[in-house]
Write a structure and sequence with these properties.
By secondary structure, the protein is an alpha/beta fold. The protein is 45% helix and 16% strand. It binds iron/sulfur cluster (2 copies).
């Protein structure tokens, strides 16, 4: 297993982190249970193969994940890092924060949590709940008492909010120590902020390294990008994340032993991408996209469409299909978009507004027609 310095936390973190949101489950009379024997086996295998970062949350696996993880690690608890999260809602006061923390400690069967996250926050939640309700101070107090070792956050918002969260916390005298955010070969929007926070000394963890399974499909993407013999897209996706010199760990939600074995092998491989190769790959991804016949930057200037057609989303699916060769994931993405009520070319009233606003001067209507026909039929 490869290890990295986890920001300036003083910890060494394994390049692969174990995401505990997909433990095998079964049901008895509509009630869900985690298959503890299988979880014990998977977690023990991961630990024996060097994984030392295990990330759970109170609601994962029908609220059973924390207890299942606690059970699986009880013989080596102090040799690993446990990460879990505090749900933040309008009603979260310091007392509620403490209650959530104590519940997680009990479920995990431990007297401390190594990385305790403000869970899935955005700028609004940070300003109006975390800061306004004094939760930063509540976290600092819990740290002082040794109940948590490091204060962290997981993030879902526009990347610019990351800087605001980290800098504002610092101004309040409470340093964020690690960040968990979305990052993968297809979604690099947080890349600049990962660099920023890493330079400030935070540990950085990526969730979704295989883009929700979209990068699990077989393609010749690597060979297309580098001219070298292809490797599995899955492996490319992992190595791309791990090649980012500012990223400390890629978290994978593993659901069976085979997956743990496969991921542990990739994260232990010493043929990982060098920073230079990583940079070249990123550039090659952009180039391949840029020179495709339909280069949508995702800027959203064409939005809103009076018929509610999410043009950048549809063109994103087309990039997956046509540029990266991820045909099935692209079709699935469109099927989900449509089943969630998303509008397509069939709903277009041909007003032409979108084309007047597109800086890429794309023939949006013509392309929408073609793309929807291929991806939706
Ligand atoms: S031309 Fe069609 S897609 Fe473009 S803004 Fe008008 S309705 Fe929307
Ligand atoms: S304005 Fe053009 S480039 Fe920007 S998202 Fe819309 S279609 Fe894509």
């Amino acid at each position: 297993m490869n290890y990295r310095d986890f920001g300036k936390t003083g910890e060494k973190i394994s390049a692969l982190g174990f995401g505990c949101m997909r433990f095998p489950e079964y049901k008895i009379e509509e009630k869900s249970f985690v298959d503890q024997d299988k979880v014990d086996e998977m977690i023990a295998f991961a630990y024996e193969n060097g994984v030392n970062y295990f990330d759970t949350a109170p609601f994962y696996c029908n609220q059973n994940s924390e207890a299942a993880l606690g059970h699986a690690v009880k013989n080596f608890r102090n040799k690993i890092l446990i990460s879990t999260k505090c749900p933040i809602g309008n009603e979260t006061t310091p007392d509620k924060y403490r209650e959530n923390l104590e519940r997680s400690l009990t479920r995990l069967g431990t007297d401390h949590i190594d990385f305790y996250h403000f869970w899935g926050i955005n700028r609004n939640c940070f300003d109006n709940i975390i800061v306004a309700n004094g939760l930063l101070e509540a976290a600092a107090k819990a740290k002082e008492e040794g109940l948590i070792r490091h204060i962290s956050f997981s993030f879902h918002d526009d990347p610019s909010a990351i800087k605001h969260i980290v800098d504002t916390s610092e101004a309040h005298g409470v340093n964020m120590e690690s960040m968990l955010c979305q990052y993968n070969l297809l979604d690099r929007s947080n890349e600049e902020m990962i660099k920023y926070v890493n330079e400030k000394g935070l540990g950085t963890v990526a969730m979704g390294p295989v883009a929700g399974g979209r990068l699990a499909a077989p393609t010749d993407l690597y060979s297309k990008l580098t001219g070298k013999p292809s490797i599995a897209t899955y492996e490319l996706a992992f190595k791309f994340c791990l090649g980012n010199p500012n990223l400390n760990c890629a978290l994978s939600g593993m659901e069976n032993l085979d997956m743990v074995r496969k991921n542990a092998a990739i994260a232990s491989d010493n043929s990982s991408f060098s920073p230079e190769e990583w940079k070249q790959l990123g550039l090659a991804m952009e180039e391949v996209k840029k020179f495709s016949e339909l280069y949508c930057t995702g800027c959203k200037y064409c939005q809103p469409c009076p018929c509610n057609i999410n043009i950048p989303k549809i063109f994103e699916a087309w990039t997956l299909y046509n540029v990266y060769g991820l045909k099935e994931p692209a079709k699935k993405m469109m099927a989900k978009y449509v089943s969630d009520g998303g509008k397509t070319y069939n709903d277009c009233k041909n007003c032409g507004l979108c084309e007047k606003k597109c800086p890429q001067l794309l023939k949006i209507r013509e392309n929408l027609k073609k793309v929807c026909k291929i991806l939706c039929e």
